[in-house]
Amino acid sequence: MSLFSKFLVLLLLLAAAAGGAYVRAGSAVGPTIAVNGPEQYVGRTAILDFSVEAPEGELTSIEAVLAQGETVIPLFVLADPGAATIEQETAERIRIAREFDRDTLPGVREGAAELIVTSVRPVLYGLREASSTVTHPVELRFTPPRLTVLSTQHYVNHGGAEMVVYRVAPTDVESGVAVDGRFYRGFPADGAGVTGADDSMRVAFFALQHDQELTAPMRVTARDPAGNTAGADFDHRVFPKNFRRSRINVGDDFIQRVVPAIAEQSSDARALLAGVPEGDLVARYVAINGGLRQANADYLMTLAENTEPRILWQGPFRQLGNSQVESGFADHRTYLHDGEEIDQQVHLGFDLAATANVPILASNHGVVIHADFLGIYGNCVVIDHGMGLQSLYAHLSSIGVAVGDAVEQDQEVGRSGMTGLAGGDHLHFTMLLHGRAVTPVEWWDGHWIEDRIGRKLAMASAR
Ligand SMILES: [Zn+2]
Q1: H/E element holding 302?
Q2: CA 281 – ligand 1 centroid, Å
Q3: What is the pLDDT of residues 373-419, one digit of tens each?
């Protein structure tokens, strides 16, 4: 073979190899596209959030549209990102967020639509391209929920509870009462014993807490899965209450007795005490009295989510038999050590006098949702009475029930004691609404229950 022929063969082989590479490049995979949101529903406002990943982050184009039938509305192009935010997540991946609203979607209707994202990346030194497309089905929903308040005459005591009956449509939306940002979920009214209640009727218990203003705004609110919201006012009057102030002397003996005993049983307490010197009794006490009190309050908020969607209680709640009330609800306490102020806290419950080891009885029917040591409360039982209402029994020497037990009113749940942050044998009792403390006095009072709850449920049944 002549030199020229050899050269020709080599040239042909190279051409074949290049051709093969060119063909293979044509079947290279396009960028990886992931739509992070919206999950299913698109409301009056929504954020299209997606990420695109390619080798070495090389991208030729990205385009996102909302499509419904013939209507195609551009939402994003890489060449002109507009108000969209683009975040470089890794060397190979970017994340794009583009907010859009109903007004920017001319010609679309409520119902099914598609979010379509297409991206192209260069292959073989830019000689060819590889593209990919992701189609994400969504449902457009622009009509806000509809709310109608049915109950009248809502009288709210500062630190106390009330109840609203209302209708919400459609029925798959979350609704309840918002009191200056604190939300109290509503439940289907048949769970409150309203006879003949249709699917749209709801009952929500709510509170004006001791630390909120008397002028705190309160409304029924609703929010659908697409994020559309609605609100409705209800007539209400608020009554001020006097909360007591007291001063409590904390001695070294007390601190040395309670702090190590709580730390032994509570990992939250051990975490708060880590780094606090053994000898600094005041700092150790404040870590428990303030820090652990807050951690326990947070836990009770989470625990409250385990509520039954129906009322389990019946009639007035029972106060511990013949007990003397030692301390009022929302008593503002200043703590003193050797005459110096060391802390201030609000005591959110009632301290009821009891001798050691007396039976502690369930104040009403319900289901036990906590039966264990709980920080400042020591051995503690929480009973769920349904629709967000719970009762709490603290400082017990022993616990006689387990989580999941159904209990009847007056059934023994444990024995009195002085575990946790307690100076002597007594029952610390409180009522909670969605995990937030409310005065038990109302729930002990048959007249209050009839006026505030029974009357409104009877009127709802008649509708
Ligand atoms: Zn107490």
Answers
A1: helix 293-303
A2: 21
A3: 999 999 999 999 999 999 999 999 999 999 999 999 999 999 999 99
Q: Which residue intervals of the chain bear CATH 2.60.40.10?
A: 25-140, 146-241
Q: How far, in Å, from the CA of 391 to the mean position of ligand 1?
A: 13
Question: Mean pLDDT, to the nearest integer, of 425-448?
Answer: 95
CA of 347 to the centre of ligand 1 (A): 6
| pLDDT(87) > 90 | yes
Output 320 or 273, whichever has higher pLDDT. 273
Gap from CA of 177 to ligand 1 centroid (Å): 29
Q: Which residues surround ligand 1, an ion (CB under 5 A)?
A: 351, 428
Ligand 1 centre from 307 Cα, in Å? 24
What are the residue ranges of CATH 2.70.70.10 in the chain?
245-440
Which CATH code of 3.40.190.10, 2.40.50.100, 1.10.10.10, 2.60.40.10 fits the domain covering 146-241?
A: 2.60.40.10
Q: Name residues whose C-beta falls within 8 Å of residue 363's C-beta, 6 or more positions apart in sequence.
A: 317, 318, 319, 383, 391, 409, 429, 440, 443
Q: How many CB atoms lie within 10 A of CB 77?
A: 14
- Distance from residue 254's CA to the centre of ligand 1 (Å): 15
Give which of 448, 302, 307 is closest to 383, Cα–Cα.
Answer: 307
How far away, in angstroms, is 251 Cα from ligand 1 center? Answer: 17
pLDDT of residue 96: 97
Q: CATH topology for 25-140?
A: Immunoglobulin-like (2.60.40)
**If you measure from the C-alpha of residue 351 to the centroid of ligand 1, how many angstroms do you get, rounded to a whole number?**
5
CA of residue 432 to ligand 1 center, whole Å: 14
Pick the range with the lowest mean pLDDT from 155-159, 239-243, 323-327. Answer: 323-327
- Rounded to the nearest angstrom, the distance between the alpha carbon of 216 and the centre of ligand 1 is 27
Q: DSSP label at 80? A: -
CATH classification code of 245-440: 2.70.70.10
Q: What percentage of the chain exceeds 70 in pLDDT? A: 99
Taking residues 131-150, what's their average pLDDT? 96
Bridge partner list, 247: 334
Place of tokens 């396009």: 30
Q: Please, is 274 exposed, middle or buried when counting C-beta atoms within 10 Å of its C-beta (0-12, 13-18, 19+)?
A: exposed
